[in-house]
Each structure stands twice: as structure tokens, then as C-alpha cells.
Specification:
alpha/beta, D-Maltodextrin-Binding Protein, domain 2, 2 domains, 5-stranded mixed sheet, 12 strands, about 20% strand
Length: about 300
């Protein structure tokens, strides 16, 4: 009897084992990543699945075939005084801004290394022209006159000049009303598009007009506005947004735009970097990276 029970138990265990081995297994979860189709050009670089920036924003990196600069060192120069394009963050003491992010990303795409330098605005164009630096930037407007001195990249920003004033300003609402009051003063930086707009679009065309108070940097002009030393600073809408965000309830923009201009990076005449930077700029427009920078620096930065 005991032998029969043992055999019977063994048969039950065997049948259970067979049933378990025959049971269907759960299908594996589908992978998030899928295999990319083969590139038409075998020499084209693979499309990165990683973010094009260290931020939380992700981009479909352009599939354009970009030049490879082979790790070349690029000496870049800016002023660190044009919020939010290039400035020193008061919270961290680090040099940051739209142009820093843009050029760092350009070199990431072109396989080059950036060595950042700082110089004054009034020496920047001549320094780049003479080859002291490879590329310069400071919200530099592309003009025919400047094209005689340096090469420009394709435009990376469209700027329009607006009147930045203290909040609550009620003495004038447009350029004509400003010009009509001889007591009102403009703060500006010599040699900039803002300065020439003040001279020729607001005042009388006299570049030595005493109603224009000159400062070494845009930041100093804005501080003079905040202090009540001048009554208006002409500035592009993007930078105005940055200063307004940094000084909530103290600054506003009034009136219609007085001038429009394109910003470009500058290179020494005949530089081989111009075409490479243009290719990278084109790819960054295509995949939305510039849109990300505009949102980050013109809207989100001041809200932090």
C-alpha cells in the first residue's frame, strides 16, 4: 500500500512539473528605444539619443552632416555685460548667458573646445579683426560698415530697439514726446546700435548731443536708469526682458520698436570658421535649440 501511495505521489508531481513547463511565459515589455534606420550616407554621424543640452529639455538633434573640427581650440570673446546674452550671474558669480550656451553647443556639434575670454566692447571688433580671438559676440548688429572690418555669421537673433524706462513713467510714451522734452536724458554705450538709434531715430542726429549720457556697459546704463540719473535706455526687446525680470516692478518697455537688427558672431576676415558656425547655426534652428535658449534666457531665467 505504501509503495502504491509513493508511486501515485510521484505521478502527480511529474504531471504538475509538465504543466508548469508547458505554461506560456509572459511576453517581455517592449523596449522604449527602437533601432534607427540605416543612414543613407555611411559617413554621417549617428543621431544622438541624449539631450542636446544638460537641461531637462530634449531635442531631435539635426541629422545634417556638420564639419568636424577635430577637437580644435576656439578662442571666443565676449564682454560679460549684456544681460541675458552674456553676463555674470549675481547668484553664482559665473559667466553665463544665451551666447555662452549657443557657442558651447556649436562646439559640441562641431567637435571643438571653447576657451572663453573677456574684453571691453570698444576693443572687441578690432581684436577679432586682428586675430587675437577666433570668434566674438556681444549682441553685435550685422551692418555693412562692420562687414568691412570682420566676417559675420548668419544671424542668430533678430533684435528690435525699444525704450526701457522706470515703471510708472508718465512724461512720455514715444520717441517724439521724449525728444520734445529737453530735460530728458538717454543712457547708452558708445559705438552700439542703441547709441546710433538714440542719435538718429530719437534725437537730432548730433552724435555729441549732451542729452545722451555714455556708459562703459549696458548694465551701467540700466543702473543709471534705476537710480534716476537718466530717463530712458534703448535696448533690444530680448535684453529688456532680461533686465525687467531681474528688476521686477521697477522697469518697463514703452512705445513701438524704433529699429530692427540682426545679431551675428564675428570672425577675422577670411576665417575658415564662418562656414562651420553657419552650418551649426542652421542645424540649431532646425532642431529647435535656439527656441530653447530663447525660452531659457528671456523668460525662465528671471523667474527663478
Amino acid at each position: 500500500m505504501r509503495l502504491r501511495l509513493i508511486i501515485f505521489a510521484l505521478l502527480i508531481l511529474a504531471s504538475l512539473a509538465a504543466a508548469c513547463s508547458a505554461a506560456p511565459t509572459a511576453a517581455p515589455a517592449p523596449s522604449v528605444a527602437t533601432e534607427a534606420p540605416a543612414a543613407a550616407d555611411a559617413t554621417a554621424p549617428p543621431v544622438s539619443a541624449a539631450p542636446a543640452t544638460t537641461s531637462s529639455h530634449y531635442f531631435v538633434v539635426s541629422q545634417q552632416l556638420l564639419p568636424d573640427l577635430g577637437g580644435r581650440l576656439i578662442n571666443a570673446v565676449t564682454e560679460n555685460a549684456y544681460t541675458p546674452l552674456n553676463f555674470v550671474d549675481p547668484q553664482t558669480g559665473q559667466a553665463v548667458g544665451w551666447e555662452y550656451d549657443a557657442v558651447n553647443e556649436i562646439c559640441r556639434r562641431l567637435n571643438c573646445q571653447v576657451n572663453w575670454n573677456v574684453t571691453a566692447w570698444d576693443t572687441m571688433i578690432s581684436a577679432v579683426r586682428e586675430g587675437q580671438f577666433d570668434v566674438g559676440m556681444d549682441g553685435i548688429t550685422i551692418t555693412d560698415e562692420r562687414k568691412q572690418q570682420v566676417d559675420f555669421s548668419d544671424p542668430y537673433l533678430l533684435s528690435q530697439q525699444f525704450m526701457l524706462v522706470r515703471a510708472g513713467e508718465d512724461r512720455f510714451a514715444n520717441a517724439a514726446e521724449f525728444a520734445a522734452d529737453p530735460e530728458l536724458l538717454i543712457g547708452s554705450q558708445a559705438g552700439t546700435t542703441n547709441f546710433y538709434t538714440a542719435v538718429y531715430e530719437v534725437l537730432d542726429g548730433d552724435e555729441s548731443n549732451p542729452r545722451i549720457k555714455l556708459f562703459d556697459t549696458f548694465g551701467a546704463a540700466v543702473q543709471a536708469l534705476l537710480n534716476g540719473d537718466v530717463d530712458m535706455v534703448l535696448m533690444d526687446k530680448a535684453s529688456s526682458t532680461g533686465y525687467i525680470s531681474a528688476n521686477p516692478d521697477k522697469l518697463v518697455v514703452i512705445g513701438d520698436p524704433l529699429a530692427s537688427e540682426d545679431f551675428g558672431f564675428i570672425f577675422s576676415p577670411g576665417s575658415d570658421l564662418t562656414a562651420s558656425f553657419n552650418a551649426a547655426i542652421d542645424s540649431m534652428v532646425e532642431d529647435g535649440f535656439f527656441d530653447h535658449l530663447n525660452r531659457k534666457w528671456f523668460y525662465l531665467y528671471g523667474a527663478q
